Amino acid sequence: MENVRPGGPNILITGTPGTGKSTLGAELAQRCSLHYINVGELAKQEQLYDGFDQEYQCPVLSEEQVVDEMENQMTDGGNVVDYHGCDFFPERWFDIIFVLRTDNTVLYNRLEHRGYSGKKLEDNVQCEIFQTILEEARNGYKPELVHELPSNTPEEMEDNLDKIEAWIQQWKAAH
Ligand code: DAT
Known about the structure:
The protein is built from seven helices and seven strands; from the N terminus they run βαβαββαββαααβα. By secondary structure, the chain is α/β, with parallel strands linked by helices. It has a five-stranded parallel β-sheet with strand order 2-5-1-6-7, sandwiched between helices. Strands 3-4 form a two-stranded antiparallel sheet. A hairpin with a 4-residue loop joins β3 (about 50-55) and β4. α1 (about 20-30) packs across α7. The longest helix has 21 residues, at about 155-175. 2'-deoxyadenosine-5'-diphosphate (DAT) binds next to α1 and α7.
């Protein structure tokens, strides 16, 4: 049975860090009057952590606590969710999933500009080269839900916004 969501569709924006998820997600939510959820920020705000990663020197997200925290809001619908992973979210949450993709050199420059260096920079660029997040999305969700979007230039960002906005209008008309 299809999920009924009074607040509108739930959209997941995923991809390697630096591909443009938060820029796209926040802008999309504003344009379409949806609720923007940056999962990393939510975890930080609510301290939804489970241990500490010595290698990366950062707290480890508690996937269980994050899911519990988001559940009600996701059931209501009308959310744009932004996270660099997707395998721990319940499949029933999302009506569509967009995986942002960025060319290696463009991504390298963006992450370097963000202050990443050494192993962290290399691991994130490798994550994009190996299409890790795309594979994760394809493994976890019905193939027809998962869409790749290029995110190298402001024109592509604008084009992606237009496409998703059109999809939202269609979804609303059909529900
Ligand atoms: P993420 O949330 O995936 O980590 P971001 O939205 O913070 O990524 O974007 C990282 C940087 O790259 C930021 O300075 C904005 C820029 N950027 C993102 N998408 C872009 C695009 N399609 N064209 C040009 N710049 C982009």
